[in-house]
Amino acid sequence: MKGIMREIRSDNALSDRLRDEDDQLRRQVAALYALLANIYGTDKLVLKAGKLEALNLMRSDVLEERVLALQRLVFEDPTIDEIPSHKDLPAAMNEIEEEIADLIARRTVEEKIERKTAERMQQRHEEYVRDVKAQVLKDLSGPENPQTLKRYVEIEALEEKHLARSVVETIRPASVQEVVGQDRAVKALLSKIASPFPQHVILYGPPGVGKTTVARLALEAARCLQFTPFKENAPFVEVDGSTIRWDPREVTNPLLGSVHDPIYQGARRDLAEGGVPEPKLGLVTEAHGGVLFIDEIGELDPLLQNKLLKVLEDKRVQFDSSYYDPADPNVPKYIKHLFEKGAPADFVLIAATTADPSEINPALRSRCAEVFFEPLTTSHIEEIVRNAAAKLKVDLDPQVISIISEYTIEGRKAVGILADAFGTALYRLTGGVDGVETLGQDQAPVHITEDDVREVIQASRLSPYVAVKASDTFEVGKIFGLGVSGFLGSVLEIEAVAFPARDSGKGSIRFNDTAGSMAKDSVFNAASVVRAATGHDLMDFDVHVNIVGGGRIDGPSAGVAISLAIVSALQKRGIHQQVAVTGEISISGRVKAVGGIFEKAYGARQAGIKKVLIPAENIKDIPPDLHGMEIVPIESFAEAIPHVMKDVEIIPEVSQE
Questions:
Q1: What pLDDT score was predicted for residue 579?
Q2: What is the DSSP letter of 621?
Q3: Does any domain span residue 332?
Q4: What is the C-alpha to C-alpha distance for residues 197 and 199, in angstroms, rounded to an integer?
Q5: SS3 state at 306
């Protein structure tokens, strides 16, 4: 009996404990439902339960079914359909609580992030509103602000300051009639520009002879003629070919134009934001209807020269960009026009260069007429200095003009020397040399003395341009040859001496190695000619031929001069020092044509030569206005002897055999 009672009491205690655990689980489940309702809201929780097929389970009186509903709600998985057993409820509840804890943590972080996001959005919104207000105010007031206005005032103040005009601007020719020494070049250029069908032109010539000045004046003269296509407002665009910098990728090309793609600096903001490329027009379009003058075109990049040729043919500049979309409605009309039709570039090209024509692009030369400017003579320099002095309103000593003409053949340089002498004379007048502190308004014109010019020449370390001067004398073994470098001719001093060899037939011939191989060949040709003409075998003599100054001779044009110098040295006959000779000598004694006759003639004139012997084939190359200088065409070596040597005997013609 007692055992039965103990079992009954034990069962009752177990039942009580189970009821307590069941109540605890129910309360725990209820608390979790309340927590979910607090998280999602009651209505949203009911909707969520309906979607997860847990609504009936939520309303069930069976604890295990309510726990199953919690599992579906918390894990958001409607496929969970296994109802947990009573003994598995604590473990299931722990899993649910862990998941709800994670959910609460996520919700807390999300709310925190949303709160910060809202704050940041509010801040950005306020900044955006401020920017919009600032832009509206800027649009209403324009682009100016205190800083830009201050800079504008500073620039205006700088504009009010002016120095005196430069000497070049003061004495620059105002018309083609004032250009000195280039009558033929001016006439040739005007005939090609001032025409109903103007041509592209390349101007060749040494520096400082007026190529740029004449190009400017040519357009001004053409504007005044009714039959030319140039209007009164035809532009003259000038650029230096040696300073043009461009990018082969066409990011920048000031000559032809370029496309500023949106990713590159320089695109307009409204176009960059819309991804629209913008073509930038170049100088060729700016010169449309006028003249494009390119100085030193020989220094222009070869690839850019080829691109310029294409523009000269098409008379338009084409633009291209991978960013251009013809269907884009944001593309302005002018940009669409430039991409589809190109920019007009119908102009006349005038190019100038100091380089030899052989150094210029052959394709460019074939499309342009060519005009050669002549070197300025001493008389031209004197006239330029005289005109400049008149424009500067200064008085000159009688010798000033001739002194300046001795030290340069460039008009620009001559004017520069005169300007420096003007400053020196003015300093002398106002700097205390004569005790004068100021130069009054009524002061007489500044007087430039010979000493002023000499002082400028010494300070500039100048030397006379013509180092070799002709003289009315005779010298044995010395003769003047003629050379040319670029567009300038010069006089070469050629010397020869001859001594009997110690052993007959074992003589030698010496010549400058620096003179070049072609000049050495001329010496050997001369040896054959001299032997045929005089009967002397040069192997019986020690002959030394020298080019004074060590200059290099690239051609055979010194052959006749070398032959005459050797004959003079052998026969001890003097050569007239007012005669110069040029021409190639053949071993048969014939005088062959050479190049550069035009320039050589001017070089001889500069040196004071009175007579020049040239190949007969070159007679048409001589300019017609070489006043005071006799030109003698010769066909053979024998013809040169009477014009050169003193007490000349008749020398038989060289045999052709």
A1: 92
A2: G
A3: yes
A4: 7
A5: helix
Q: Are residues 347 and 395 in the same domain?
A: no
- Give me Rg for the CA atoms of the chain: 50
Q: Which residues of the chain fall short of a pLDDT of 70?
A: 1-20, 137-145, 163-168, 249-251, 261-275, 431-444, 513-519, 550-552, 554-555, 625-627, 647-657
In a domain, 654, yes or no: no
In a domain, 568, yes or no: yes
CATH of the domain at 231: 3.40.50.300
Report the run of H or E that residue 213 belongs to, with start and end: helix 211-223
Return the number of other C-beta atoms located less than 10 Å from residue 492's C-beta. 24
Q: Give residue 495's identity as a one-letter amino acid code.
A: E
Check if the beta carbon of residue 547 is closer than 8 Å to that of residue 512.
yes
Q: State what percent of residues in the chain have pLDDT above 70.
A: 85
- d(CA 532, CA 375) in angstroms, rounded, equals 39
Domain of residue 626 covers: 474-644
> Angle CA(650)–CA(652)–CA(653) in degrees, nearest 5?
130
Is 81 among the domain residues? yes
The structure's pTM equals 0.69
Beta bridge partners of 514: none
Check whether residue 250 and residue 137 sit in a common domain. no
Same domain, 244 and 352: yes
What Cα–Cα distance (Å) separates residue 162 from each residue in 146, 171, 172, 439?
27, 19, 19, 21
Q: How far apart are CA 328 and CA 325, in angstroms?
A: 5
Calpha distance 229→197 (Å, rounded): 8
- From 426, 459, 492, the end of a domain falls on 459
Q: Are residues 97 and 155 in the same domain?
A: yes
Domain boundary residue, one of 459, 488, 523: 459
pLDDT at 274: 57
Q: In sequence order, what are the beta bridge partners of 615?
A: 634
Q: Is 27 helix (H, G, I), strand (E, B) or coil?
A: helix
Residues belonging to the active site: 557, 600
